[in-house]
Task: structure prediction
Amino acid sequence: MQRAQPQDFSRVLSSMCTEPHPVARDAAERFLATNPGDPGTYETVATLEREAVATLGEVAGLDDAAGYVASGGTEANIQAVRVARNRASTRDPNFVAPASAHFSFHKAADVLGVEMRVAPLDDFTANLEAVDELIDDDTVLVVGVAGTTEYGRVDPIPRLARMADEVDALTHVDAAWGGFVLPFTHHEWDFSDADIDTMTIDPHKMGQAAVPAGGLLARGPELLDELSIDTPYLESTSQVTLTGTRSGAGVASAAAVLEELWPEGYREQYETSQSNADWLAAELHARGVDHVEPTLPIVAADFAADTVDALREEGWRISRTEAGEARIVMMPHVTRETLRAFLADVDRLR
Ligand code: 0PR
Result:
């Protein structure tokens, strides 16, 4: 049988994952047979995880960060809701999130038995009046998104955090994708900008780590203690992660690439990705194609459905927003050359 090969990235415009950086790939291979879920036995990878969390904290404006390298943004978001639920005393907990929140929050609500209240948007970000109306004394968490999945928009995080504080709820920021580009922008999104408690920030997206490497950060260890489960027969006595055995490859790759790229490498990637997004938006404008302005490096373009189908036939991997626009995510593998080839096909097929 022929050896299966993964897809190549040359026509992938839809993904929030990318080719791992060479140092991430190398570290992943070396640490394949390690389990950070058992830090007593696998000490080296446990040390790497602490280093990765410390650097993720730097990225997100937090000294002495608590947290861990999760399986992905989904786990980190579920765990953030779980922290908030466990910390609160209400029997009927709810959390409030904007309609732009990733579908992983619906999973969190379902798994944890916490009601999810969805606030409508105004110009792609949370409508604050609506959020305010949805918050009540049983609200345990307010969620803001810093880099939405569809349009790369940033909610007004400081204002959401103030609303959460008023009812003693926690604030969680989902920067799963945006966390590695936002430090180089003027947006207010991190632990130094607002009284936020937890954050999702995924090395396996813009961080260029190997999959699986998500990130959960907490302002202090006492928040993670809300998740603590006794582990009687391990050398370590408790565990806060959702999964048990975890990927040492993911953890080691995250630690390696964070050390390699933070901050200058990530800054360069942000500048390249953002200039590609702005360039594509200008090219679309020149062609009369409606599009949503890329505040972060994602472009949503309003092609006719037939055009998208024809582009897919040519091998372009494109996903659609709920409203039907084609999403083009400027991951590191999406270069100016990729975009020129894409536009040439757009011009031919439109
Ligand atoms: N939060 C945000 C803001 C996200 O965009 C995503 C995933 C998550 C959380 C969940 O992260 P995990 O998928 O790591 O659990 N956003 C992309 C999406 O669902 C993920 C993705 C990645 C999609 C690669 C396609 C793909 O090829 O659309």
Notes: The pocket of 0PR is lined by residues 14-17, 72-74, 77, 102, 104, 145, 149, 174, 176-177, 200, 202, 214 (CB under 6 Å). Residues 264-286 form the longest helix (23 residues). The chain has two domains: 22-260, 264-349.
